[in-house]
Amino acid sequence: MKYMMFVCTDTEPDTDKENEPDIDVWVEENDAKGRRLQGMALAPTSTATTVRVRNGELLVSDGPFAETQEVIVGFDLLECADLDEAIEVARAHPMAREGRLELRPFADFEQ
């Protein structure tokens, strides 16, 4: 099952710095096991463009629309047997301690 894992910042990171995971090790391990299909960091929110259409009018603005301290800073596309495995993969990611990870399965419109 494929999951999109959004990597986000958080205003309250873990203060326990002991045994912090290494992102390079996490990537290598999950790439080797075929669980991480793709992943990438995103450019800062200052480079973002928000696009909306309202009443037929195109509205384009710089940056994210909502002001928030929690932002998406990257993503990983995961292939896991089930949600439990995806949770274990996310648990070992460094941003599970420094930020937050949102796991979301891809929709299956054929069911």
Sequence-ordered SSE layout with sheet pairings:
Elements: E1 2-9, H1 23-32, E2 36-41, E3 49-54, E4 57-62, E5 72-79, H2 83-91, H3 95-98, E6 99-105
Antiparallel strand pairs: 1-5, 1-6, 2-5, 3-4
Structure in words:
The protein has helices at residues 23-32, 83-91, 95-98; strands at residues 2-9, 36-41, 49-54, 57-62, 72-79, 99-105. It has 111 residues and is an alpha+beta fold. It has three helices and six strands. The chain has a single domain (1-14, 21-43, 69-111), classed as Alpha-Beta Plaits (2-Layer Sandwich), CATH 3.30.70.
Helical content class: 10-25%
Distance between the termini: 14 Å
* CATH architecture descriptor: 2-Layer Sandwich
Rg, Cα atoms, Å: 16 Å
Order of helices and strands: EHEEEEHHE
What class would the helix/strand composition place it in? alpha+beta
Q: According to CATH, what is the topology?
A: Alpha-Beta Plaits
Low-confidence stretches: none
Count of individual domains: 1
Strands ordered across the widest β-sheet:
2-5-1-6
Question: What's the shape?
Answer: globular
The total of beta strands comes to 6
Provide mean pLDDT, rounded.
91
Strand content: 35-45%
The CATH superfamily is identified as Dimeric alpha+beta barrel
Q: How would you characterize the largest beta sheet?
A: 4 strands, antiparallel
Tally of separate helices: 3
CATH class: Alpha Beta
